[in-house]
Amino acid sequence: MTRILTRLTVVAHASTPALRQAAFPADEPIDSYGERDCAGLALGWRPAQVYIAPELRARQTAEALGLAGETVPDLCDCDYGLWTGKSVRDVSDADPEGFARWLADPLAAPH
Asked: Which pLDDT tens digit goes with each residue over 68-99?
């Protein structure tokens, strides 16, 4: 019997202005805190394959970690539509029913 060991590591993008402000992101760069955090992180291993989401923040995070790989459009973040760039508070105040639906149902897209 052959045993195949596979390791999957998922790396989230570094911090961005929207993340720090609890807002729905646009295609934005990582911020100085994210750059600093990546610079101080030693992975200690090199993956055989790297797949990167197409957003600027994901590509910058990979680069800051010294990872080169394939950009995969299917890994893109959600399109937040009308909510893009708005804070969670502003959206929940302006559209409480839609926001509640979005939180409760993974398939809901009120934005």
From this structure: 999 999 999 989 999 999 999 999 999 999 99
Q: How far apart are CA 7 and CA 49, in angstroms?
A: 11
56 phi and psi angles, rounded to 5 deg: -55, -45
2 band by pLDDT with thresholds 50, 70 and 90: confident
What's the pTM? Answer: 0.83
**For helices 56-64 and 32-39, angle between their N-to-C axes, nearest 10 degrees:** 30
Sort strands 70-71 and 51-52 into parallel, antiparallel or unpaired: parallel
* Alpha-carbon torsion, ordered 23, 25, 26, 27, to 10 deg: 140
